[in-house]
TrEMBL record:
One GO CC annotation: membrane
Family assignment from sequence similarity: Belongs to the short-chain dehydrogenases/reductases (SDR) family.
PANTHER family per the UniProt record, alphabetical: DEHYDROGENASE/REDUCTASE SDR FAMILY MEMBER 7B, SHORT-CHAIN DEHYDROGENASE-RELATED
Source species of the chain: SAR86 cluster bacterium SAR86E
Record Gene3D superfamilies: NAD(P)-binding Rossmann-like Domain
Protein name: KR domain protein
Matches recorded under Pfam families: adh_short
Record flagged with keyword Transmembrane helix: no
InterPro entries: NAD(P)-bd_dom_sf (IPR036291), Sc_DH/Rdtase_CS (IPR020904), SDR_fam (IPR002347)
Entry GO MF terms: oxidoreductase activity
Amino acid sequence: MDTYQNKIALVTGASTGIGRAMAIDLAAKGAELILTARSKEQLDALAQEIKGKGGMVHVFVEDLAQPGSGERLHQQVLAAGLHVDVLINNAGYGRWGQFGEFQRDDYAAMIQLNITSLTDLCHLFMPAMVEKGEGGVINIGSSASFLPVPYATVYSSTKAYVLMLSEALRYEYAESNVRVMASCPGATDSNFRNTASEKSSDRLKQRISKLKGEGQVGDTCERVSQETLDAFLQNKHYIVPGKGNSKFAFLPRILSRAKVLKFTGDAFKKHTAS
């Protein structure tokens, strides 16, 4: 695949952040869009924006943090007579704080969204790509995919899964001309920060607000989108968008696991305590 022109791309979590930026970029590159997220209002507004520029968009509202949601989305796409050339599994969320501060059902929803639904959508949409002899999947991981991150314990673990799954699927499907790539952005100025802290303590919310106020918001969603989509066409097996973020991928290669854990643990403990 060397172009997005005339391809149909499904973007999950398309209502805000990186997913929204990718939808806009893909439309500008000539792709037809299938957008999904929980917010119909936000999806409809994005669809109107894209259509206003001549793009083609289909909207399916689905909460992928719910069991069975991947199958429901797949059935809606098929019922509309659509196929998917590029699947972009962007939907996800995390929590920032002590492991015991959050309820098990919150973690269950995170695992459902970040792991189970992502896996389901790969399993559901990839066979048609194989049959067609072309297609691809972009799974949005995180710089946390490479490291254990205390105080973002479950989130970093789910993102490690995303990277491992993507690399293994890439190998399995290489001869089918179906490419799989993981994109592992670092801190991004998106809705993720708000989501990560919405059930956290006031201390954590204040810390995130301080980081944003100091301009420490990392990369923009637009930059992450552009670098990710370009890397996919270049057939890279993973990318860490943004300047300086690649260090997270290399730390485990130069430090022992114990030192990596101390590095990330000390860094995040400092943030949670301030």
